[in-house]
Amino acid sequence: MKLNDFRSYYEPLIQQELLDQISSLSIPDSLKESMNYSLQAGGKRIRPILLLAVMHELGHNHPDALKVAAAVEMIHTYSLIHDDLPSMDDDDLRRGMPTNHKVFGEAVAILAGDALVTYSFGLIARLENVSSDDKVQLIDLMSVSAGAEGMVGGQILDIEGEEKKLELKELEQVHRLKTGALLTFSILAGAILAQAKPETIMSLTRFGEHLGLAFQIQDDILDVTGTSEELGKTAGKDENSEKSTYPGILTLPRAKEKLDYHASEALAAIEGLDGEMALLKELTAMIVKRKN
Ligand code: GRG
């Protein structure tokens, strides 16, 4: 199956799963509206699509896959709501729309993020068609990937890194944690649900790590070349910008070489796996070529 067809099929299902999960809750309207506002604000759904694509390539269907995909998207959405807050990036716009706190106020936005992250763990705990062992493994891995040892840890390194010029190794560590950890979790969650062999999980971990870095380098390149969704905030910054980025540390041409390196290492990691892995190859190409 081609990636476009796969995405066209699954994106409405992911959307519906997210809507169903939140609409079934008996919670204050303001919180529900704020959670739904950011969940339905039209992100690329890369993490859920990665999870579902891994399952497809491993030849596995799972009745709870969409729920785990929704849980990952909820974690991602919480991170964006909190990242936009005045105490963090202080952004007015996200995906071309007013940020959550601009619409609902800071307190509601913080609580909507808190509610999304806590709900996502419960969603996995309540899966009906996954063994208790696999649920514990998913919850453990998600907590490491999203928490202090993963995305939250990366966010604090990123904030602290704004005070100084980072070395390439330090910048890589920020992005491994801040962006890469949750992308890799999405891939591994698909592999766990598909009952993948340990060798397959190892190859997919390597795939995820390189894909995460490629994703972030392209994000930095888009900021410099002026086509990023963050246009107006960081886009068009020159190579001497104060925030450490790949083009800033390496120059733009060498950042592009680094992007190609991580994309080809990602592809090499899945080369020996059974099955064509066509969707994962197309996703890698999409991440390298994306314009937002
Ligand atoms: C607040 C704990 C906490 C973490 C925030 C993910 C993150 C950490 C911040 C987002 C800031 C940012 C622009 C990071 C660069 C890469 C990235 C994760 C971009 C956003 O992800 P996409 O492109 O977003 O998948 P969409 O809008 O498509 O869902």
Question: How do the helices and strands line up, and which of them pair or pack?
Answer:
Blueprint: H1 3-23, H2 29-39, H3 46-57, H4 65-83, E1 93-94, E2 97-98, H5 100-104, H6 106-125, H7 132-146, H8 151-161, H9 168-193, H10 198-225, H11 246-250, H12 252-269, H13 278-289
Antiparallel strand pairs: 1-2
Helix pairs in contact: 1-2, 1-3, 1-4, 2-6, 3-4, 3-9, 3-13, 4-6, 4-9, 7-9, 8-9, 9-10, 10-12, 10-13, 12-13
The structure holds geranylgeranyl diphosphate.
Task: Walk me through what this model shows.
The protein has 13 helices and two strands. With 292 residues, the chain is an all-alpha fold. The protein has one domain: Farnesyl Diphosphate Synthase (Orthogonal Bundle), CATH 1.10.600. The chain has a two-stranded antiparallel sheet. β1 and β2 form a beta hairpin. The radius of gyration is 18 Å and the shape is globular. Bound molecules: geranylgeranyl diphosphate. The site of geranylgeranyl diphosphate (GRG) has 15 residues, from α4, α8, α9 and α10. Its EC number is 2.5.1.10. GO terms for molecular function: (2E,6E)-farnesyl diphosphate synthase activity; metal ion binding. Its cofactor is Mg(2+).
